[in-house]
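Lab notebook, design round three. We kept the backbone fixed and only want residue identities now. Task for the bench partner: fill in a sequence for the structure below.
Input structure tokens:
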């Protein structure tokens, strides 16, 4: 879908509950782009009664190799990306028929994890932030401006975001009074949640993180449980 954003057009993928309404969650892409895996995350959230939207921060580009992904990530205009994310939040806040509640969650993976933290520091409507092994050297986050709880998922064998980096981030957040719930999973690597890339994916850890995230989002955004759960 597309919508107007700061005088231009912004594209995103949207998934909504089959029945009823639910809190909104923005899903922020990895360095690969708005690929099928990110769309699948939105679909899974919609099945759990969330309205999930993933903005296309690369604007119709997607990477097929790590080198290409790295180039796209480093070329990303952070200010423009922040505007795209803010535009999605404004779109959701303007009376979306499926959205319940005013607080919005942000969930990001890899590059998107760092951008999720950045969004939480810049946009007051963000009511919950989930950071999956977030990293982007050009995105600096002012932890003192984050006013929502933050959940973090990290990997013991992550060469991009080692455990000491995750612990340092958690300490910085706590120093500014941010409620945190961080997890460093043993024996797994970066991108353990991405089931489209088998070299790092770890099913048991991904499922554990998914359930913890759902509980966190429901508690933070007052989301109803899925029928029958």
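Proposed sequence:
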């Amino acid at each position: 879908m597309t919508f107007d954003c700061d005088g231009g057009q912004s594209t995103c993928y949207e998934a909504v509950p089959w029945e009823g309404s639910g809190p909104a969650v923005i899903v922020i892409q990895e360095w690969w782009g708005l690929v099928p895996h990110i769309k699948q995350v939105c679909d899974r959230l919609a099945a759990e009664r969330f309205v999930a939207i993933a903005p296309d921060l690369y604007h119709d580009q997607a990477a097929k190799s790590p080198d290409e992904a790295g180039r796209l990530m480093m070329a990303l205009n952070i200010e423009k990306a922040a505007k795209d994310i803010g535009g999605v939040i404004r779109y959701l806040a303007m009376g979306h028929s499926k959205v319940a509640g005013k607080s919005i969650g942000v969930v990001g993976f890899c590059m998107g994890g760092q951008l999720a933290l950045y969004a939480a520091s810049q946009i007051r409507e963000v009511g919950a932030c989930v950071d999956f092994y977030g990293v982007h050297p050009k995105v600096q986050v002012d932890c003192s401006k984050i006013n929502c709880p933050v959940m973090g998922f990290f990997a013991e064998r992550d060469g991009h975001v080692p455990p000491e980096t995750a612990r340092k981030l958690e300490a910085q957040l706590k120093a500014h009074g941010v409620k945190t719930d961080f997890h460093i999973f043993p024996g797994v690597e970066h991108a353990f949640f991405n089931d489209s890339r088998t070299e790092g994916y770890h099913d048991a850890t991904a499922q554990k993180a998914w359930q913890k995230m759902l509980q966190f989002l429901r508690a933070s955004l007052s989301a109803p449980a899925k029928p029958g759960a």
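Keep this in mind before ordering anything: Residues 2-221 form a domain with the Rossmann fold fold (CATH 3.40.50.1820).
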